[in-house]
Amino acid sequence: MRKNPPKASPKNLPSFRKRFSALQNLPRFFALVWETNKALTIGNIIFRLIKSALPLLVLYIGKEIIDEVIRLMDHRTDSHQYLWILVGAELALTIISDLLNRCITLFDSLLGDLVANKTSVDLVHHAAKLDLYQFENPVFYDKLERARRQTSGRTVLLSQTLAQMQDILTLISLGAGLVVFNPWLILILIVAVIPSFIGETHFNEKTYSLTRSWTPERRELDYLRYLGSSAETVKEVKVFGLENYLASRFKSLSDEYYDANKKIAISRAGWGYLLSAIGTFAYYGAYLFVLLQTLSGLITIGTMTFLSGSFQRMHGMLQGIMTRFSGIAENALYLQDLFDFFEIQPTIPANESGKIVPKPIRKGIVFENVGFKYPDNDFWALRNLSFTIQPGEKLALVGENGAGKTTLVKLLASLYKPTEGRILIDGVDLQDYQLADLRANIGIIFQDYIRYEMSVSDNIAVGDISNIDDKAAIENAANMSMALDVISGLPNKFEQVLGKRFKDGTELSGGQWQKIALARAYMRNAQIVVLDEPTSALDARAEHEVFKRFSGLIQGKMAVLISHRFSTVRMADRILFLEKGKLIEYGSHEALLDQDGKYAELFNLQAEGYL
Ligand SMILES: Nc1ncnc2c1ncn2[C@@H]1O[C@H](COP(=O)(O)OP(=O)(O)OP(=O)(O)O)[C@@H](O)[C@H]1O
């Protein structure tokens, strides 16, 4: 748990300049909006333009109506026609204004939803491009988290900015009317609103800074909420009785956040009230001035209502514009987080102009003095690895926990780049191949494969998602991985939803899940197949059977198998024994037994039932 909660101190507040420079994000944001839906964007802008001219017209007609009524009261015999035309025009404007309001709200919400959806889709695509190690870095995770929150949260920026433009146009039109009468009134207005604006700006900065500095804690809160209330964790939470521990850990962290937020909210409310009071006094000062002018007969009653009406509207509007402006600047700052995330580039490039993996691979895969260190570790997870996988060869990786087996497989799949040395396929460095083609040629089932809470069919099809509709291929893969027995026992067979998250879902046993996951390897027509302990939950007989079938079914392909069961490992053509990241023994089962080294020792221990 955190020791020193971050504070929104002046030091970590974004500077005034930085805040305003964040407004530079708006053109990029609007380019995104425009790209999302051009028709809705244009429609929205046109409606707002029309709407911006209405207040001045309404006020002017109101003035004319009052003056006309007063005139008609003095000249009772005159025709009322002009009055009724004015009333009709006012009615029409009100109806048009209501219609425009509805359309603007509708367009705002449709466009907002579309922008949020598009950003989410872009986020998924971009995240998939990034490196695995970037996901293992907490700083990156915080960025991702902030970006994720921006996808839906920032759509309000759209209506804010458009409303701002609309109000500014209205303000200009009203201002023009006011200038004709007395320009000083406008000056009073502006001066009255400035204190409020500065206050709002200041508190927005504080809120942003607090939210930002609390990203890791908010992530922890989300995680604790997940641990305390999800189907995946409920079993362990119950048997270990963790609910109070999780709840109190959540509470103490969320209370800290609440306190920090509360402080800002209270001082914002207090200052906001004081500063806007200044504006109110100025408004009434100007109002008094207009009243005195009317009493002394300098202006008509109609002009007085026009002026006081437009002054009141302008006052509210100017205050709104100023407040909204700092809101926009704040949202633009958040937007920066989203764009920053999109700026992050993978270190393993897609290399779209790279080579295509030869079909078939003729010379095999060569590890040439390969070493690898995880970014935050100072020890080598793998070092000085040199070996070859011949075409058609089945290689088994053995070694104790943490020896580096999974890491080796991740290097082979180009999920990481070797820190030193090279991995070659047919004499060409992995990095020179097109990344997508390389991955298409490798089928890996990891030990922590995903249990997709989707249908059985989809769970298998993820092995080759381009063939998601090929029912025959899916059934064939299920047959090969021995998943067919499991599936035939399910009520909806291949359409059965797995997991308990969704309606009518069924949970499987660990071994049953593994058989389904294993079918993914058969679904993918890859030249290199890697199974990283995907059979650990199978009983010994089933695992033996799975591997026997596997060897037969993938004849001619290269395979890398990771297993802690020596009865399985011995089926491989060659075995590579890793210890603390180093290759210590390498050869066929028989050769390694003859060598009487570490492999032979562990094999014999297991054969005797000690392991
Ligand atoms: N993402 C990671 N970041 C940092 N270190 C890691 C990461 N993954 C693994 N390691 C470290 O690298 C070493 C090798 O781990 P690896 O997962 O390759 O072992 P393994 O042989 O597959 O183990 P097991 O049999 O338990 O699956 C370990 O010391 C582990 O702590």
Tell me the CATH architecture of the largest domain.
Up-down Bundle
CATH superfamily of the largest domain: ABC transporter type 1, transmembrane domain
Rounded to an integer in angstroms, the radius of gyration calculated over CA atoms is: 35 Å
Strand pairing plus helix content: what structural class?
A: alpha/beta
The overall average pLDDT, rounded, is 85
CATH class of the largest domain: Mainly Alpha
Number of domains: 2
GO molecular function: ATP binding
Protein name: ATP-binding cassette subfamily B protein
InterPro entries: AAA+_ATPase, ABC1_TM_dom, ABC1_TM_sf, ABC_transporter-like_ATP-bd, ABC_transporter-like_CS, P-loop_NTPase, Type_1_exporter
Keywords: ATP-binding, Membrane, Nucleotide-binding, Transmembrane, Transmembrane helix
Structure write-up:
The protein is α/β, with parallel strands linked by helices. It folds into 2 domains: about 25-345, ABC transporter transmembrane region fold; about 355-440 and about 530-535 and about 565-610, 3-Layer(aba) Sandwich (Rossmann fold), CATH 3.40.50. About 65% of the residues lie in helices and about 10% in strands. It has helices spanning about 15-20, 25-35, 40-75, 80-130, 130-135, 140-155, 155-180, 185-215, 215-230, 235-240, 245-295, 300-345, 405-410, 435-440, 455-460, 470-480, 485-490, 510-525, 540-555, 565-570, 590-595, 600-605; strands at about 365-370, 380-390, 395-400, 420-425, 430, 440-445, 530, 560, 575-580, 580-585. A 6-stranded mixed sheet has the order 6-7-8-3-9-10, with helices on both faces. The chain is elongated and about 120 Å long. Mean pLDDT is about 85; it is low at about 1-15. The structure holds adenosine-5'-triphosphate. Adenosine-5'-triphosphate (ATP) binds near residues 401, 405, 406 and 407. It comes from Dyadobacter arcticus. Pfam families: ABC_membrane, ABC_tran.
